[in-house]
Description:
The chain is built from six helices and 18 strands. By secondary structure, it is α+β, with helices and mostly antiparallel strands. The chain has a single domain, classed as Jelly Rolls. Strands 2, 3, 4, 5, 6, 9, 14, 16 and 18 form a nine-stranded mixed sheet that branches. The chain has a five-stranded mixed sheet with strand order 1-13-10-15-7, with no helix packed on it. The longest helix has 16 residues, at 47-62. 41% of the residues are buried.
Amino acid sequence: MSQGRLQAGTYQSLTKGSSDVTKPHSASIRADYEKHGYVLAEKLFSEDEMDALMARAAHYVEHPKDGIRIQIEPRLAADGHQSLRPIDAVRKMEQLVAHDDLFREFSRDPRNLAYFETLLGSPLRLFRDALMWKPARVGSAKPYHQDSAYWSIAPMSLCSVWVALEDATLENGCMRVIPGSHTQGIIEHHHLEDFMVTDEHVDLAREVALEMPKGSALFFHSLLLHATSPNTSEGSRRAMILSCMGPDHAWTGKPEEEPEWLVLG
Ligand SMILES: O=C(O)CCC(=O)C(=O)O
């Protein structure tokens, strides 16, 4: 296993000085993404921007709002998480973009759109947002999986951004990926401790653990094998995920179940 910080495929802001995504380095971003299945934009967002998003999310844990879904860490949910404050037991929040102006603005931020448009084209439609909280000490693992196995959308070439709202480290459960694994197609997933692939499909010798400073963004392909470890640290490891469809993507589930997509740009 190696660490992925400051490796090839790590970029500063694509939009620095201009939002013109036809600039020459867009081609190298696309080439890296096609080869590795991800690109890392180091410190794309400021620490203040990350703090504002975390404060807003924390507000909804203390003052729940209709439509914003909050999932408690399963192990704690089983015992009623009596021993912890709600804020120290949250695993995941969903639908913040639909129900909060700050998260909606963030989803449409030109820095996100520049990468998404470079990688997917436009128009872009957002179909998922999730804030992964991974609370201190009790934050659980997410075993190896491919996101496309969860989604009724084709072709299986969607793109998500995983934004580090706090420094993501080996100890608190940073993202782990198998570079290039997006080229091998969909792998069968099983309902084990989670919906996941079995060990023989994960070449751990090629694993890269992506430690990311706060404000950094990982754009990754929906067939990339990825996972996170439990949080064994004394602090949380919050990250925001936005998942997008490009112009060539279509819903393959039951027509009556097709969600309303939020057009981003
Ligand atoms: O942030 C995490 O811990 C894992 C998130 C993830 O892999 C996912 O939601 O697909």
